[in-house]
Every structure is written in C-alpha cells, then in structure tokens.
Please model this.
Amino acid sequence: MRRAITLLTVVLAVVALDTLASAEWEGTPPPSLGNDWTVVSDTTLTGEEVYLAGDLTVKAGTSLTLDGTTLVLTGGGQHAILVETGAGLVVRDSVVSAAMGTHYTWSSYGDTLVASSDISGLFGGIQARSDGLRVEGTRIHDCVGPAIELHGNDATITGCVIDNVDVGISSVSIDIPEVEDGVMITDGWTVTIADSVITARSYGVYQHWKKSLSGTLDLDFITTLDNVEITGSTNAGVYLYVDLYVNKGTGTLDELFDFKFTGGEASRNGGPGIYVYHYIK
Model:
C-alpha cells in the first residue's frame, strides 16, 4: 500500500511540474494580489491563468501578448483594459472574461490583434480608438452594448462569431470638431467584415457618422461585408447613416461612399435587412 501511495505521489509531482513548465511569462509580471497591472516592458504570458481585480494598462512603447492564457477580470466598480497610443496588445488562443457584475471597458489607442480567442462580459465591448484593430476567428459574447465599437475608425473583423450582445459591430462618430485655418482633412472609415456570424438584440452592424465640417475634405466611407450572416436584431440588420453638413468656403469636397455586401445574409431581423442613409448639405 505504501508503495502505491509513493508511486501516486511521484505521478502527481510529474503532472504538476509539467503544468508549471507549460505556463510561463516574461516582462512585467501580473500582480500577485489581483491589483492593477501596468505593463512597462514587452511582456508575454503563455499558458497562464490570471485573476485581475484592477486595471490593465499597456504603456506606450511596450507590448503585451497573451498566448493560451485565461484572464479573468474580477474587480468591483469601474475598471479598464487600456492600450495606450504607441502600445500593442496581442490576444491569441486565449480567454478574456469579465465576471458577472463587473464593469470592465476595453479601449485601444494603439494596435490590437485578437485571434482565435473567447471574449465575454465587457461593458461596451472592444473599443477601437485608432485604426489598429484586427479581430480574427474569435467569439465575442455576453457584452453590454456593442461587441466592437469603432468610433469611426478603420478595422478588419474576420471569421468571428458575435452573440448575446446589444449591437454586433458599432461605429458612432458624432461631433463638431474645431477647424484650424479653415482646412480639415478627415478620412471617414474603412471597415471590412468577412466570414462572420452576428446575432445581436438591437442592430447587427450600426455605423453612424454625423459632423459639420469646413475647408478641404477628403472623406472615404467604405464598408465591405463578405459572407456575413446577420440575424435576430429587433431593428435593421445593417444600418449605415452618414449625415454631413459642409461649409466648403474656398475648400473642396472629395468623397467616396462605397458599400458592398457579397454572400451571407441579413434576415430574420425586426427591421429591414439593410438600411442606408446618406445626406450632404
């Protein structure tokens, strides 16, 4: 009997060592007590399980890679994942889950790649504050508000499943920016969604751009949906709304409005499958 116990102990020790060997990190370690995690050097976590009760900030000039890692966000109150301008975040083959009752936002001002991962529980989804967002082969679900919010920025979303959210992919940019010397150049958006399934409560894809502009304008509004299935929304499956008030003065307006929907479907929604409104005054 003693020999059997000894053998069992050896087996368990080997399994434990193997588990430890597969989990590793380099760079800025996650906090041991679940407080804020501020990444100040290039950091990679592989095969780790992290419980974070505070904020996660990736500082400018650094990068964070989560590879085969589970990140559970547990903090009460309002907390955030923040990728600063000039920073990078890669989430690959990983799980990022905000626990029920938490209020975690995810804002990226830098470059963010989310690939082959599972993202859930966020408040406002993944928010792109720059043109550097790519989401590939990922499920995003059980978020309050949109799964992805682009704020008028460019993005590429491919091979994704989005479900149990209020809006699948949103891009709202409404403001009256300051005009300097009567000249302004702004690029609108370029959004590509391919090989994806979106099931949302309100809208599948919602893009709303409304501004008053002056001067020399170069505006491209390019939306491409390729093999995308959008169902289950109480409103339109795809809603594109551009409302532009232009005071050109001595400037010029150069605009491209391009919408392509090839393959897939927008059906079984409460409103029209596709709604497009474009107005220039």
Remarks:
- DSSP finds one helix and 24 strands in the chain.
- The longest strand covers residues 189-214.
- The CA atoms of residues 56 and 81 lie 5 Å apart.
